[in-house]
Amino acid sequence: MRKLLFALPALFLLASCGGSSNSSTQTTTEQTAAEQKGDSFTIDTATTSVDWKGAHKGGLAPRWGKIKVASGTISVEKDSISGGEFEVNMASLQVDPASVTEEGKKATDLEGHLKSADFFDVAKAPTAKFVITKVEPYNASQGASLIADPNYSISGNLTLKDKTLNVTFPAKVEVSASAVTASAKFVIDRSAWGINYKTEGSPENWMISKDVEIGLTLNAKK
């Protein structure tokens, strides 16, 4: 199959309900947002990035790229994140040309396809959203981490298209008096949000891996 799905991001922005290919990522139903207590930090959209990576079955023909964060805030109380949320501009989804090496294929063609009604339907759903619901110290028993030295486990409601699910993943967070930085990397199952090519059981959709890797580098300033 010649087209491949993103996943988000970035990301925003998950794993399938009932389990994921990555044990460090858990997904449940939508949860109550955490109250944003303490000081407010504004996300620096110029230096905050959401990376995505997807592939066909068996890891063949991987594709990757970025999506821009449009706005957001992070709250800090007693030197720890207490809550926050951010929106992702789905129209900014980009495919890295370096990931499209087959003759006759173009990154811009894939970008258009991912933004179409076949996948993210950006015309009807121009933004994705992540809202923090819980922040707690990371415990290795919760599962392996895809980033080094995680110190927090973050849960949040991720909205893609018209569906919201709660996802939990390890993150490395640093808080100072003037800034918050955070990084995370985890795997989501696109089908949990009903993102399928043609139909869920179609051969075309089967050829695309349900797993999508999401990477987040977040910077916020007071």
UniProtKB/TrEMBL annotation:
Entry coiled-coil feature ranges: none
Low complexity bias locations: 25-35
Region named Disordered: 19-39
Xref: PROSITE patterns: PROKAR_LIPOPROTEIN (PS51257)
InterPro entries assigned to the protein according to its UniProt record, in alphabetical order: Lipid/polyisoprenoid-bd_YceI (IPR007372), TTHA0802/YceI-like_sf (IPR036761)
Record keywords, A-Z: Signal
Name the record gives this protein: YceI family protein
Source species of the chain: Pedobacter ureilyticus
